[in-house]
Amino acid sequence: MTALFPALRTEQAKLALRFGDRGLSYAQLAAVAGALAHELRSRGCSRVAVWATPSMETSVAVVAALLAGVPAVPVNPKIGERELEHIVSDSAPSLVLAAPGTDLPTALAALPRQDVELTGSATQLPEEPGEEAPAVIVYTSGTTGPPKGVVLPRRAITTTLDALRDAWQWTAEDMLVHALPLFHVHGLILGMLGPLRRGGTVHHLGRFSTAALARELAAGATMMFGVPTMYHRIATEVGDDRELASALRGARLLVSGSAALPVHVHERIAAATGQRVLERYGMSETLMNTSVRADGARKPGTVGVPLRGVELRLVDDSGTPIGDWDGETVGEIQVRGPNLFTEYLNRPDATAEAFTGSWFRTGDMATRDADGYVRIVGRKATDIIKSGGYKIGAGEIENALLEHPAVAEAAVTGQPDDDLGERIVAWVVPNGEPPAEQELADHVARLLTPHKRPRVVHFLDALPRNDMGKVMKRALDA
């Protein structure tokens, strides 16, 4: 038996979880999650859906399912009817776990329900299954079809969290604060299960605010996890907010993920606090692949080096590995290691297509420098623009646009062009009065090169984003 959370088996009085004014010690969490785990075992559950609100009940439900050896399927509370019907049909959960009194949508309300009560006691925790047993099934956002269920084994979770212990010097003394959703890898596996595996403490803010973040950091939190939209808000406020700047200055690690953090956000936070935000790179199918190390050089705009146990390579369009780490040559990231998922649920065709031999094809494009640092330039399908014979990453143009004082947000896509193959199109949320299109084109040409300038600029009130703050570029093109 390999225990996912050793601290639960020592019944410590130390605080494990806190949501608002509610908290559970490790001993209390072991009691309530253990009781629920035995209930799931006794009911013979094959899988359980978890109505994943940002709550104590969600955390207890997932821990209980993991203790019971029953795969958990976290469900986004804002999910649409069609996607939910697909997930329920595809994963076929035996029942749904939810907080008492929660109203569930029709597709889940039709299932047997088990309320997650923060009461009960387990005299002994169940024996946990082997490392290849399915632990969590996360549904990816569908771009060309319905979402696919990524089956993550216990092995992927433990190896990733232990590799992050090494990279981030993460210990039981750390206290993490975040406000991330609990139905994604970032918030649930890293942000909730990560501290519990270390025997540390996590405070979930519920809803993100800089005031709440500053309060928690000032009270002793040592780490923050966030997405770029959160760090953008911090960057706009920290220069004028002494309490926020002081609280951030005292943190051990500020970690950003789920999307690239613009370089100008890095610089504004560093100028006000002396802190360099640390970036890492992962996805549902692989959990974490790379990270800037806590004891390593910080290079804004990069996602660091491969984590312990992860092999990473870049390949060209023909699938040939790129041998030179020159920081310029763009290739697709392929990875292999114990952090990988087992399969797409009920989709052997998609699983086979995702691999070339033992290497997982991420679809992410990147460069790698002489020190091994990886810089993501975008998704192969949406962020690599082939214009005038050049292969151009949308990310560097977006960063250049964001350096213009009249640009608040920016996204870049490619659109078909008879002469160029694809023309570069910028989608800009202006900071006040929109600047002239030619002014932005000249700005990019001056910072980068002329062939990377936008040929078309659209001004918007806001960029379409998903729950994790990623810009939905297919929605822009549509």
TrEMBL record:
Record-given protein name: Malonyl-CoA/methylmalonyl-CoA synthetase
Pfam families linked: AMP-binding, AMP-binding_C
InterPro entries noted in UniProt: AMP-bd_C, AMP-bd_C_sf, AMP-binding_CS, AMP-dep_synth/lig_dom, ANL_N_sf
Membership in a protein family: Belongs to the ATP-dependent AMP-binding enzyme family.
Coiled coil: none
GO molecular function ontology, one term from the record: medium-chain fatty acid-CoA ligase activity
All copies of domain AMP-binding enzyme C-terminal, residue ranges: 396-470
Lineage: Bacteria, Bacillati, Actinomycetota, Actinomycetes, Pseudonocardiales
GO biological process, one term: fatty acid metabolic process
